[in-house]
Amino acid sequence: ISLFGLVIILLAFFSAGMTYRWIARPLEGLMATVRAYSQGEYQRYGRDLRFAEFFMVDKLIRKMAKTIQAQVSDLAAKNAELNAAYKEKEQANLQLIDFNDELERKVEEKTLALRCSLMREENRRSMLQSLLSFSHDLQVDKNIIEVVMTQVVALYPTAGWAMKAYTHNNEAWACENIDKNCLENNNIQPETHYSDYYCLPKSGEYLHCFKIKNSHNEVVGVIIMQYEKLQRDDFEVISLFIRQLSTELEGRLLNSELARIAVTDSLTGIANRKAFDHDLEQHIQLYNRYPERSFGLFMIDVNGLKRANDNYGHSMGDALLIQTSKLLVQACRATDKVYRLGGDEFAIILEVGDEDSCAILWQRLETVREHTNYASLPSGQCVEVHFAMGYASCEHYSIDELCLIADKSMYKDKRSFYKQRGIQR
């Protein structure tokens, strides 16, 4: 190869390299722009391109970059909205979870409250049935203490109970499941408290005390409950029970008092003719069943009652009858019973009344007559107490003869008294 040819070859290589560089640099700029756009650098500014085709391509790429940039911005805004919506959804879900939890809690509370309410209603129904049963038991004339204790123990089997009723013959405590020692405390007595209900602490429990009052606000009894602290429903039930009991107890006390008045002589306070007829019939029936159990009968007549009334007035006659009844009662045994039959007539029934027992009582009454006894008025006026008496025992006489024999003996004694005194009747 000649030197000229070598020069030509070198020039050809140089021209090719310059041409490649002239053409390749715009392409490199386009590629750099594309790479920048692909990396999110949309603000890149390159040099002006030499060829229109490259310029158009660059313009197209820049337009596409702006479109993509707008779309990316729009996507970012949409994404932000979606994130906000997602957060709202999460918050709503949390609120829904809280709402569900609260709803479940309220449902459980309402269910429990309803269950408790149903249980209370069932207890009330049971207690009302018990109260109706209690009222029925009281109406059939059962022992009121036994009925009450049975009823309260059925209502509250785990509680301790004590009751005292202020009747004529019963002031002792009736107890069930209660420490009797606590009843010895004077502070437990109803007269030491003003309120109808009072509560005393007792070893982790309480002594709930309820007064039983009549319509005149008088205390006729007390009920004590050894139990934990009372709820309102318990207090209402027991209060209703107490009111029902007080009404029944007052009625029984009233009936008892009316029955007592019906068989009691209003002047002397001893048994009257009605009581005598009833008791005599009872003794006759008993004697018919058990003939070995003899009873005795004394007939007594006050001497001088008419003269006392005529001379000093009926007040003196009343005083004479009262004093006579006292002397007769003092002379008798606890098993003997004195009656005023009416006017100046008295009678005594001896439950154990064989002939010997009647003779002993006769002797005691004779001793009373031997001592001078007087009936007096506040004014100081007085008259001597004397009475005639006669007796008979079914040990020696039939039942039909008993009253007649006693009366004959009494009138014989009365005639003897007036004859000795020289008094004309």
Q: Could you give a short description of this structure?
A:
This protein has 425 residues and is α+β, with helices and mostly antiparallel strands.
Describe the structure.
- The chain has 3 domains: 1-140; 143-262, GAF domain (Beta-Lactamase), CATH 3.30.450; 273-421, Reverse transcriptase/Diguanylate cyclase domain (Alpha-Beta Plaits).
- It has 425 residues and is α+β, with helices and mostly antiparallel strands.
- The protein has helices at residues 3-38, 52-139, 144-155, 232-262, 273-289, 305-312, 314-331, 355-370, 399-421, and strands at residues 160-165, 174-176, 197-202, 205-213, 219-227, 296-302, 336-342, 345-350, 374-376, 382-384, 387-393.
- Helix content is 59%, strand content 16%.
- Helix 6 (305-312) runs antiparallel to helix 7.
- The model has no long low-confidence stretch (mean pLDDT 85).
- A hairpin with a 5-residue loop joins strand 4 and strand 5.
- The chain is rod-shaped.
- The chain contains 9 helices and 11 strands.
- It has a 5-stranded antiparallel beta sheet. Strands 7-8-6-11 form a 4-stranded antiparallel beta sheet, sandwiched between helices. It has a two-stranded antiparallel sheet with strand order 9-10.
